[in-house]
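Quick one:
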Amino acid sequence: MTEGGAIMTTSGTDVSVESVVRRAASAHRGERGALLPVLHAVQAELGCVPQDAIPVLADEFNLSRADVHGVVTFYHDFRGEPAGRSTVRICCAEACQALGADRLLSHVRESGLAVGETSADGSVTVEQVFCLGNCALGPSVEANGRLHGRVTPARLGAILNGTV
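Output:
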């Protein structure tokens, strides 16, 4: 985030958070349930839904700031800070837990990464999620939108290093 509510977009240019939000809201004006598509558009352009966007979204949709904040924090796909260049999501739902998801989380910690955070160099963000819909092939991991099943700690290491 830069001064004055500006932020660097995913394409590398500085823009006003307010202008991004208002442009996205304008594109979806009149649609039923437009808040979610607008949030996705804002995150696609900015890499996150920054705190500065909440009051603008509230104004655009005639909602309270608390209502908008509730939506942003309820859905795990929205983030307040940009993610790393790669995003790795580890399933920790019951089926994957039964098949060894805890070993994957341990491997992440042993690798010096923290679940729910981005690495210091900005290369990877590791997230814990609850169900990727791949229960029969657990433990499952999603890396940059690509689903992996029967993931071992060694294979997770390769995924985290970007070699898979």
